Amino acid sequence: VKIFAPNIEQRDVVNHLKGSPTEEKRNVLVESARLARGNIQDLAELKATEFDAVIFPGGFGVAKNLCSWAVDGKNCTVNEHVNATLQAFHSAKKPIGLCCISPVLAAKVFPGCEVTVGQDKDVDGRFPDAETASAIVELGCKHICKNVNESHVDRANKIVTTCAFMCKAPLHEIFDGIGTMVQEVLKLA
């Protein structure tokens, strides 16, 4: 297992204690290195031939830094290295795992694929971003409704997705869903 991140500036830096942006500037690779305890490489160096699968975690950083979904929605652009990585694994018929908001990357890069970001309606306030499912459909993809503890496998494209924090759920349910995604990716590898 190796960890990669793009060597780019973050769109913005958020003080998560206050919930507001700061004037500070940070680099995605440097911040990712902090989380990965330094054991990380520039995404530009990733070679699909050296790995059996790739998994993209989610989070708002995906929507702001790996693509411009947070600002542009379905009209977003995908970072060139993220796009190249997805294309390389897809072309090699190697599995791709995506959780939380990152399934929008597949929806943007692979029209016609099947993904999940949870539900397409805000059920009991648990899916406040349910409109993301509609945007995925507008991109020409199929959104599959799943609960937070489940994942969806698009066997034709070898794409496995789960909604994770797109659902307001207890952490153990989110953990279970991410676990099923990882297990399914490994089965396809």
From TrEMBL:
InterPro entries: Class_I_gatase-like. It comes from the Eukaryota. Transmembrane segments: none annotated. This is GAL3A protein. It comes from Nestor notabilis (Kea).
